[in-house]
From TrEMBL:
Residues 19-59, 379-442 are annotated as: Disordered. InterPro entries: Cyt_B5_heme-BS, HARBI1-like, HARBI1_dom. GO terms for molecular function: heme binding; hydrolase activity; metal ion binding; nuclease activity. Residues 380-411 have a biased composition (Acidic residues). GO terms for cellular component: nucleus. Its cofactor is a divalent metal cation. This is Nuclease HARBI1.
Length: 442
């Protein structure tokens, strides 16, 4: 039977159908959201508390009305099998171009997803989407500047189906995160030190830290705080990488207006370092940060010297070596966004909590690709006019940094000096040079 939209809207008295869809949407939504948390100390999300709950309620309402329209006016013709056949016939090169992962890696993950129990297989109701279709739909979605509508048209299903599948696969990826996002421990610490040392001879470094903006639509609640210096709404991704550009710690979801130091102090990494410094950073190891972290005041972060125009040749060389080593985290962000192009643009999501989870899921896939020797540099080279690198370094310490004008009156400054003196034992003491410059100015 054909329905006329105007007739339906004018005679919208079928409350029973609407109530049925509301209860059905509610039950399916709760089952989809009941997935396990990642359980990893190397990942946390900024929690927007009540605002996030209200945003989730809005998403459920959108799903409900979309489902109502689908029942009344008919779903698109299913062409799933035809699409999968086309995908299977593509060459490996074509597959990676479209889905951004090597075929064998994607299908290994599809097998894991299929065995995980995240894909419903109970009888009854509509035909269930396979693990293969679900994972390929997820990859297609995050690999492009796309919308749920685009994916629905591509895969011949409803928008709510896309919405549900993307969330379901995201939650599954987060459950395997502890296997793939790993802080260096035991023998891996020395190996990580050596790999970083080969970059520019900076000793004792076990990670590079930085932040990156991920564009989002204006959240309905507290939207102003998400407006960032790049003149867009964004959430922040803080990441630590090792010398192979593998993410070893992630913190995601803070508003885009926050500065690097404020985000760091809100993270579980910061809290863990305060509780168990020797476990995370044994034998005086540390992270390298850019000038955005100057003033954080912690001996487990080494930053460049501030340039007042009086740096010695050794200090300038030190800053260069720090930059050459630390740039790995910026390169990792660039590869992440080149592979998953949805992160490069404005994510069409108003649910900040889910947006952060989706970003972290992409970071997990990034690590899986790197470990399979798919470094992604060729994907990054394809992107033009990129502004991914140096994404959160504007040279400002910001109102939240509480930084000092001196590099040698806090733990961080002392550690920077200690590393400098180890690298340049015959160089003049930078602290004395700084004091002389201040006295000359006065």
């Amino acid at each position: 039977m054909d329905f006329d939209r105007n007739d339906i809207m004018e005679n919208a008295g079928d409350r029973g159908a609407l109530q049925f869809l509301m209860s059905d949407s509610s039950s399916s939504s709760s089952s989809d959201s009941s997935s396990a948390s990642s359980g990893s100390d190397n990942f946390e999300l900024f929690d927007s508390s009540n605002a996030s709950e209200e945003e989730n309620e809005d998403e459920e309402m959108v799903q409900m009305f979309a489902a109502y329209e689908e029942v009344l006016f008919g779903a698109p013709q299913a062409r799933v099998e035809q699409y999968l056949e086309v995908v299977r016939e593509k060459t490996d090169e074509q597959f990676r171009k479209h889905f951004r992962l090597h075929r064998h890696v994607a299908y290994e993950l599809i097998d894991e997803l299929d065995a995980s129990g995240f894909i419903p297989n109970h009888p009854g109701g509509k035909e269930k989407k396979s693990a293969e279709l679900s994972f390929l739909m997820f990859l297609w979605f995050v690999s492009k500047d796309s919308t749920h509508i685009d994916a629905a048209e591509m895969f011949g299903c409803g928008e709510t189906t896309v919405f549900r599948i993307v969330r379901r696969v995201t939650e599954w990826i987060l459950t395997i995160m502890p296997e793939h996002v790993i802080w260096p421990q035991g023998p891996n610490i020395q190996q990580t030190e050596e790999e970083f040392f080969l970059k520019a001879q900076v000793p004792k470094c076990i990670g590079a830290i930085d932040g990156s903006h991920i564009g989002i639509e204006r959240p309905e609640f507290y939207g102003a705080v998400y407006w960032c210096r790049k003149e867009k709404y964004s959430i922040l991704l803080q990441a630590v990488v090792d010398a192979r550009m593998l993410f070893t710690n992630l913190h995601c979801g803070d508003p885009g207006s926050y500065h690097d130091i404020r985000m760091l102090r809100r993270s579980e990494l910061y809290a863990a370092a305060e509780r168990q410094l020797g476990d995370l950073f044994p034998d005086k190891t540390f992270l390298l940060g850019d000038k955005g972290y100057v003033g954080v005041g912690k001996k487990w972060i080494v930053t460049p010297f501030k340039d007042y125009g009086n740096l010695s040749a050794e200090q300038s060389d030190f800053n260069t070596r720090v930059s050459v080593t630390r740039v790995l985290v910026e390169q990792a962000f660039g590869i992440l966004k080149a592979r998953f192009r949805y992160l490069r643009c404005t994510m069409r999501l108003r649910d900040v909590h889910f947006a952060a989870r989706l970003v972290v899921a992409c970071c997990v896939l990034h690590n899986i690709c790197i470990r399979s020797q798919d470094l992604g540099q060729d994907l990054r080279d394809e992107e033009e006019d990129s502004d991914d690198e140096n994404d959160n370094d504007d040279g400002n310490e910001g109102p939240d940094s509480d930084s000092s004008d001196s590099d040698d009156d806090n733990e961080e400054g002392n550690r920077t000096l200690a590393v400098f003196k180890k690298m340049y034992p015959r160089a003049p003491d930078p602290a004395n040079r700084r004091r002389c410059a201040v006295n000359a100015d006065n």
